[in-house]
Amino acid sequence: MSDRVEEALARAGESAAFVTVTAERARREGPGPLVAWKDLFDVAGTRSTNGSFTRRDAPVATQDAPIVANLAAAGAVCVGKTNQSEFAFSGLGLNPHFGNPVNPLAPDRIPGGSSSGSAVAVADGIVDLAVGTDTSGSVRVPAAFCGLVGYKASIHRYDRTGMLPLAPSLDTIGVFARDVADAVRADAWLRGAPATLPETATLPETATLPETATLPETAAFRCVVPTGELVDDCEPSVRAAFEDALSTLDGITIEHRTLSALVEAQDLMDDHGTLAVAEAYQRYGHLLDEPTDVDPLVLRRLADFDAAGEPVVRAARAGLRARLVEELAGAVLLCPTVRDPAPPVAPLLADLDAMAVANRRALRTTALLSYFGLPGVALPHGTLPGGLRASVLLSTPPGDDDRLLAVATEIWPLLR
Predict the structure, then answer these.
(1) Which helix (H) or strand (E) holds 378?
(2) Strand (E) positions, 24-64?
(3) pTM, full prediction
(4) Which residues are catalytic?
(5) Per-residue pLDDT for 201 more than 70?
(6) Cα–Cα distance between 339 and 361 in angstroms, integer?
(7) What 8-state DSSP symbol labels residue 41?
(8) Angle (nearest 5°) at CA 270 between 265 and 276
(9) 344 DSSP assignment
(10) Burial class, 283, CB count within 10 angstroms (exposed 0-12 / middle 13-18 / buried 19+)
(11) Average pLDDT, the chain
(12) Short-list 138, 127, 169, 117, CA closest to 4
């Protein structure tokens, strides 16, 4: 058994990023790229807690979820299951039951969530890749706060069987990596497709993977930076870093213009609530009336459910999505992934109101884009005060993931 696997298992056992360490399985599967799974995916022989003590007696999975099996078949080594926000219902990544994963870039700052443990496991170098979910930003936000590449796929790109849902019309699967090439390879593995092996790939090679490229050509593409709050509302250091990132994209056409569909959708959700809260309420709203040990932030968000507003927001979705695709006219949407640097943990733990405000701020951009079903890639660049990284977000219309990953592959070297 490789020393690398043993080191990863030892570190995982000491890290708040992990809920379960699958040592026997890892030793049996290795060597290969090391992978961790958010604790809401079925991994044979483990219990999915979903970050909650309410699932302490949940049944142990008897088989892997299809995407877990796909990665295993490609030669990946499962190190364990990762910590998360309770029920995957917070953008902060804190967990009062299993502890708070520590952001390796700044230990006093939040890691972002809900897939916090998955992000930390990669950022801390314990694993090569980690898989999480993204409903309102739960891959893109922790990727931004932890300085990682974070890819949120379109909703039907991967098989979601064997995954605990939060808001089924929004729940997607995503990947954390330290390089775009690694995310591209993981995407192929998760789909059960032949893996792309770009020349810049950093993961260990396995004999079963053909050296074939599958990404489309990106000879000509345009980016649109939306005018309005997605940039204007950013904290000054985040906005300055974004402007610096734009200056590095030599040769790429960048348009700055208003996208009316984004503006109207944000106004709609501000007035009537989000589909994420509405669908989460359908699943967990009963907890508001039961004396259970549940994260106060989760209960606070469930209490925000607007029953009258949900049908209004849902009815407008298809039309607004079609309009946004028309307004983009084939361009890639480009904006800061988050609007603020990762906030300090301590003040949030001491003040539920501050925690709720920070959560809304952390998710505001990504939740808006999730409403449209856009896949996205968060790319780290530059630095922010306190040792944090800035992050830009590339997004395309639903189902256009291959082009998104190809554009990210081309832009990534310019940002680094």
Answers:
(1) strand 376-381
(2) 34-38
(3) 0.94
(4) 38, 114, 138
(5) no
(6) 7
(7) B
(8) 75
(9) B
(10) middle
(11) 94
(12) 127
Identify the CA nearest to 138 among candidates 366, 368, 389, 399: 366
Buried/exposed code over 68-106 (b: 16+ C-beta within 10 A; e: otherwise): bbbbbebbbbbbbbbbbbbbbbbbbbbbbbbebbbbbbb
User: What strands lie across the sheet with 129-134, from one edge to the other?
Assistant: 18-21, 77-82, 34-38, 129-134, 172-177, 149-152, 376-381, 390-395, 332-336, 222-226, 253-257
pLDDT score of 198: 39
Closest CA to 67 of 196, 153, 2, 9: 153
The maximal CA–CA distance of the chain, rounded, in angstroms, is 59
At 278 the three-state DSSP class reads: helix
In this structure, the strands spanning 222-226 and 390-395 are: unpaired
Report how far residue 310's alpha carbon sits from residue 35's, in angstroms, rounded to the nearest whole number.
37
At 263-315, the pLDDT tens digits run: 999 999 999 999 999 999 999 999 999 878 999 999 999 999 999 999 999 99
d(CA 246, CA 129) in angstroms, rounded, equals: 28
pLDDT of residue 216: 58
Q: What is the pLDDT of residues 119-151, one digit of tens each?
A: 999 999 999 999 999 999 999 999 999 999 999
DSSP string, 168-194: TTT-EEEEEESSHHHHHHHHHHHHTSP
d(CA 188, CA 224): 27
Q: E-strand spans in 32-178? A: 34-38, 77-82, 129-134, 149-152, 172-177
Which residues, in sequence order, are CB contacts of 58 under 8 Å at separation 6+? 47, 48, 49
Between CA 128 and CA 239 the distance in angstroms is 30
pLDDT band at 30 (very low <50, low <70, confident <90, very high): confident
DSSP category for residue 386: G
CB-side exposure of 195: number of CA atoms within 13 Å? 26
Q: How far apart are CA 196 and CA 53, in angstroms?
A: 40
Which pair of tokens denotes residue 210? Answer: 């053909």
